[in-house]
Amino acid sequence: MSEPLVSIQNLNVKYQHKLVIRDLNWDIFPGESWLLTGSSGTGKSSLAKVIAGLQSYSGNVTFSFNTKSALPARVFYVESWYQFKNIEGVANFYYQQRYTSLQAKDTLSVGAELRNFGKEHQLEFTAAEKLLIELQFVTFMNSSLLELSSGEHKKLQLIKALWLKPQLLIIDQPYTGLDVLSRVKLDHLLNDISAEGVQLIIIANDTELPSCINRFARIREGQLERLPSAKLDPVSMERPGRKLPDFLKEAPVYPSDEIVRMINVNISYGEKQVLKNINWEVRAGEKWLLQGHNGSGKSTLLSLINGDHPQSYANDFYLFGNKRGSGESIWDIKQHIGIISPEFHWYFDSSSTVWQSIASGFFDSVGLFKQLPFSKSTKVDELINFFGLTDDKNDLLSTLPLGKQRLVLLARTIIKNPELLILDEPCQGLDLHQTQYFNKLVDELSSNGMTLIYVGHFESDLPACLEKRIILENGEVKKVETIAESCLI
């Protein structure tokens, strides 16, 4: 038998003083490409970072790269979230900054980022140009890194990795934020580089994978378990029988039956028009699904509604019955709205505890800077119990598995029982069971008559309560329709 590309012996890894990988052994032989799966918080990313040389550990990890291969003899790791810095090398960004043109100039453009990467690794740019076309990313070359959505950031990460073609490529959550077509194209590209000799480790909980994946394993209780296929055993995600807190059963008091009304709304960044003549009306209590391919304008549309986009004042646009710019502040607007998005998650204060993170929802801040009165503290405690977070309430948000972090942010979002709940791809990075669990919570929470706008690419990953759909394409409304029950099965 040939020598393994990677040999891992008696590996132990701690995360936040907790042993997540325990005496793990794993050999990866030439020709093998692996799917690594498992529940949130089991240590998949920690194991990947060990292999990539980014995580401390005890044990032995050795490599035997192919010295005869033209591919770089190295490991390249694509993180689940893209961490970028401004021109001065600082990563201290805030959520609304991506919509401010002057602030956006503080970060490199996509084109400059790729040229720097190519220069660092001595790569020909013509190869990158082909990838840009395949993943429909050419139009973003002049966009600032700060302006990109989560799906666009993922594409940029993937283009770098596919361009480099290392002997071992590890991709953490490769499909995060990608639309259906982009997923298909990515699978083809991964198959292509696999045929050239690149070995893959894909960290995901998906069952639709590139055909080059020929080995399967999961992390459970700190150990690596080999699997016959990508299909996991069914796991019950039934919620414990906790009652919804009484304050969330109260029907919202709407200042107007008209929640959102857009009349020929247009948004441009320089010469690039992102939204074109958008007409859309959302009535009180409606449950909307917002869809569209990557770059179709969904994030920009939502930024108008949640008050973060400065160009809302230059358009014929109404929120809760009032024309934008008629005297209301952004904080007046946010009192009526709760929002989760991947971008908001990125920029949220990671030094806050779970309790502080949830309590900050009363003030729409990214940290808790005020002492709560007893009545509001009680609501925080009720939500912590409802979401099953009692044992975690004093832990830092950043130390929790991704699934629990999303539950914390959902609790934060609904703490003030908002009239409008905006959930922008809230299940990114969650496995199928976590997604089903999350969406059951959404159905339960929205039963009091709150208005919902939900962004999701896949019909199998959606709440059952959705009634209407708006689809964007290249910044324009392609379709508005009523959702039949059969459409969400």
Give a written overview of the molecule.
This protein is an alpha/beta fold and 489 residues long. The chain folds into two domains: 222 residues, P-loop containing nucleotide triphosphate hydrolases (Rossmann fold, 3-Layer(aba) Sandwich), CATH 3.40.50.300; 243 residues, P-loop containing nucleotide triphosphate hydrolases (Rossmann fold, 3-Layer(aba) Sandwich), CATH 3.40.50. It is built from 13 helices and 19 strands. The chain has a six-stranded mixed beta sheet with strand order 5-6-7-3-8-9, sandwiched between helices. Strands 15-16-17-12-18-19 form a six-stranded mixed beta sheet, sandwiched between helices. Strands 11-10-13-14 form a four-stranded antiparallel beta sheet, with helices on one face. α4 packs across α5. The termini are far apart.
